[in-house]
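During the second half of the funding period, the structural biology subgroup turned its attention to how the target accommodates small molecules. The most pressing case was 2'-O-acetyl adenosine-5-diphosphoribose, which had performed well in the primary screen but for which no bound structure existed. We therefore specified the complex as follows and requested a full 3D prediction, including the ligand pose.
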Amino acid sequence: MADETDSDRLKEAADWLRSARHVVVFTGAGISAESGIPTFRDAAGLWTEFPPDQFATWQGIMAVAAKSPGRLARFLIALLEPLAEARPNAAHAAVAALEKHTRVTVVTQNIDGLHQEAGSSRVLQVHGTLLEVVDRTGQLVRRLTRDDLRTIVARLRRMTDQPARSVLLPWAIRPMAGLRPRGTYRPRIVLFGDAMAEPDWSQAMEAAEACDCVLSIGTSRTVMPAAMLPSQARAAGATVIEVGPDACTGDICLRGKAGDIVPALVALAHK
Ligand code: OAD
């Protein structure tokens, strides 16, 4: 928040936040970047090394598993290891603290569970969660802890250390995905081509229609239909505040890191 213009914008955003009766906090990978989880589309993002056409569809993942299990293991380590070690950061905590002052619906594209861990009570996970395993009908099979993720990563590492062990892939990921007598099971996540997670997505659209302020944090707004949520809310009369390092299309743009800006914004709105 270097110059006066930045502080003017922060103050204006704080005024909107203070007067709002229902705030939708819309988040993407950027809010978890300072918890050590890589984003998707930044230079060091997951999709840079692991292209989404291969790693963001079930079909692509199955093809990589058949052709190159070691590469799938490396992708899974890159995805799971930061998640296993992640803790909520100051931005997650500030979002949770906002609930003390106004009605808040968190709509997240993230699958990391960090909003709930920070204390947010109403979180809609429109791309699902990696911390729940479901069967083919969507019924919960089990919940995964961060320790479970650590176990999977340790097994995958043993595999990648010795390529001859790639036959161990099904064993390594067994807590999270595989076959059982009544069919397959896998994480409750949304990949490209899947329907959005329900009832979360329908409830998110309702919240967008009903809210008077959207606080959008750390998203490139590229993946539809989630990315249309702020503009949907804006069309229904809400003010959109955007937080992130990139240029933005919201009513108020707060440029910088979520971990710096969101705590400052919430503190100013509700001193
Ligand atoms: P992206 O990787 O597309 O965008 C992350 C955004 O966060 C970028 O605009 C970054 O500039 C910004 N950012 C980085 N560090 C930040 C920080 N410290 N504070 C604030 N912002 C920061 O991630 P998403 O927009 O979440 O979906 O991606 C949306 C979807 O694309 C994901 O849910 C996933 C992915 O493919 C599926 O796989 C279905």
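Two results from this model are relevant to the next phase. The chain has a mean pLDDT of 94. Residues 23 and 268 are 16 Å apart (CA to CA).
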